[in-house]
Specification:
15 helices, two-stranded antiparallel sheet
Length: about 325
């Protein structure tokens, strides 16, 4: 019964997230002139909910938001206008063009990651405070954890910055997301098999502390995170798998993944804001953005607490089957 309740909780969370995705508005009659599509409060709430539920699960938040964006009809090359009715200009690869709805929504999907960031700051405030004390020389263990997080962040940080435009131009589509979902399923099943064979820790055993990780072990986790630059793979999945490889039990690997997400998500959102501040201010109304971030924060906090409870008794193997089912659904209906 325990397993059934936990599995039911996971299904309910994801079902709740996709309720808004699948409830797109009824299209207007053919005789009516269609109004220009914009990011509505309903769109913002749906995308925020999907981001919050999926960010820290090994199912790929980017993959889910790409799918949600498509199902909501937001992946359009429709030009966007500012408050004066003028086309919003954006510069990409040194070429200036008119900002499209799809580009603006892609920016929103990155900015709404502020919600999951806030959730981790709230849930792990003691650990975060330890990191800050370590940074100023008042907490030796906190300093070691901070060192490990920075080492793990560097590979994906460098590669993500270098390939930022390539990833957005060529990898953000649902077919490649479906392929990544399948590939991730295989990685999860192999990782769970490897952990059962090699790991000596039980699911609920504390395992090594995060400050006991070496620079080499932290780098291994960071290199695993690089794989998640392929949308649909899942940053959470790859960092947890990396944790397995260096001997962390599931719950402790997830904790490291959550803390590493503070650096990774903050840098991604910050880079988007710096590169496209003008377009963001002109194309994304503050109301829907605030609503989306708020919903993402609440959803992420609930999901993280549930996920840690799940990992206390189970691994991440069950998520492989969810990913396979989702990939089949995506290829069937999109």
């Amino acid at each position: 019964m325990y397993l059934v309740r936990k599995a039911a909780g996971f299904v309910i969370l994801l079902a709740f997230a996709f309720t808004g995705v699948l409830s797109a508005a009824t299209p207007p009659p053919e005789s009516a002139a269609p109004a220009p599509r914009t990011l509505t409060y309903a769109d913002a709430a749906t995308l925020g909910l999907v981001e919050g539920v999926t960010e820290y699960l090994p199912v790929s938040s980017i993959g889910h938001t790409i799918i949600a964006t498509h199902l909501r009809g937001l992946d359009l090359d429709q030009p966007l206008l500012d408050h004066q009715g003028q086309p919003i200009q954006t510069t990409h690869h040194g070429v200036t063009s008119t900002l499209t709805l799809k580009q603006a929504v892609d920016m929103y999907n990155v900015m709404v990651q502020a919600g999951p960031i806030a959730a981790i700051l709230l849930l792990f405030w003691r650990r975060v405070a330890s990191l800050f004390r370590g940074a100023v020389g008042r907490d030796p263990q906190g300093l070691l954890v901070l060192r490990n997080l920075l080492v793990a962040f560097v590979p994906a940080g460098i590669l993500g910055f270098a390939l930022h435009n390539v990833i957005h131009d060529y990898l953000f589509n649902y077919k490649l997301v479906a392929a990544a979902l399948v590939a991730g399923s295989v990685i999860i099943l192999l990782a769970e098999r490897w952990r059962r064979i090699h790991a000596s820790n039980a699911f609920d055993a504390p395992g090594p502390e995060l400050h006991e990780l070496t620079v080499r072990q932290s780098l291994i986790i960071g290199l695993c995170q690089c794989v998640a630059l392929w949308p649909g793979t899942s940053r959470s999945m790859m960092t947890i798998v990396g944790g397995y490889l260096v001997g962390l039990p599931p719950a402790r690997a997830a904790e490291f993944s959550f803390l590493l997400g503070l650096l990774t998500l903050t840098s991604a959102s910050g880079l988007e804001a710096v590169l496209h501040l003008h377009e963001l201010r002109a194309s994304l109304p503050i109301g829907p953005l605030v609503l989306g971030v708020t919903i993402a924060t609440i959803a992420a906090a609930i999901t993280v607490k549930w996920f840690l409870s799940w990992l206390g008794q189970r691994g991440i193997g069950a998520f492989a089957w969810y990913r396979l089912a989702l990939a089949a659904l995506v290829l069937a209906v999109m």
